[in-house]
């Protein structure tokens, strides 16, 4: 390790320590050299503990001198400086923090600041450690540099992690939208099914109406034919009765007259027959079987 880096390592710590020391001086009383207690400001602008300046001026009646600049004031004027009081409290807290940090960052072996970092051993070391036998051949750098380097490395790791995180967040939100999407799809399909079945019911009703009215028409049709057949058979019966009476009359006549029979009577039972009632129904059924058999 170069000597300049070792010096640089201590430089920033030293300037912080100097600033804190200045603050401690400003927050101290020039009489007791302790932190100011109940600070009061006198005419010249200097501050002291209320008790210290009171004691300093104890035996004086007039012309009160400042313990720092010797400027005298005619009156015993002590104004409390509350703002400075708060600053004193802050300086005390800073000193406590500094002490704590110093205790934590001291080498347990040499009681020097752990201002360096050994890469081989991956640990903070002090200046004496760095030149000791243990770490002499090791790669050692100022702690701040090593911290910065590790910080950069960690930040490099952070970028892909953040990318992954965003990706997962996107996936999650898209997954969270899926139930709603599914609900929409199911509702749309449900409406489609309802509409389709309404249409089917409507068509079935239509078909039912058509078949029922066709059946009624066929019934009326057959009834009409049956009535016609019955009327026809009535006519036929009347004709035959008339013919039978005629034949009976012929039988009672003399031989010559009896021989003058109408050709109709000689044709006998083989003559053209009228369709019977049953035949009429059957023929009607065969003609309309499609509707009646349903
Ligand atoms: Zn004092
Ligand atoms: Zn003064
Ligand atoms: Zn050490
Ligand atoms: Zn080492």
UniProtKB/TrEMBL annotation:
Instruction: Kindly indicate whether the keyword Ribosomal protein belongs to this entry.
Output: no
Q: Which residues form a coiled coil?
A: 190-221
Q: Name one GO cellular component term.
A: cytoplasm
Q: Name one GO molecular function term.
A: zinc ion binding
Q: Which UniProt keywords apply?
A: Coiled coil, Cytoplasm, Metal-binding, Zinc, Zinc-finger
Give start and end of each B box-type domain: 102-143
Q: Which residues form the RING-type domain?
A: 29-70
| Record-linked Pfam families | zf-B_box (PF00643), zf-C3HC4_4 (PF15227)
Entry's InterPro entries? TRIM/RBCC, Znf_B-box, Znf_RING, Znf_RING/FYVE/PHD, Znf_RING_CS
Kindly list the places in or outside the cell where this protein is found, as annotated in its UniProt entry: Cytoplasm
Q: What is its main location?
A: cytoplasm
The family assignment reads: Belongs to the TRIM/RBCC family.
Protein name in UniProt: Tripartite motif containing 39
Q: Which organism is it from?
A: Myotis myotis (Greater mouse-eared bat)
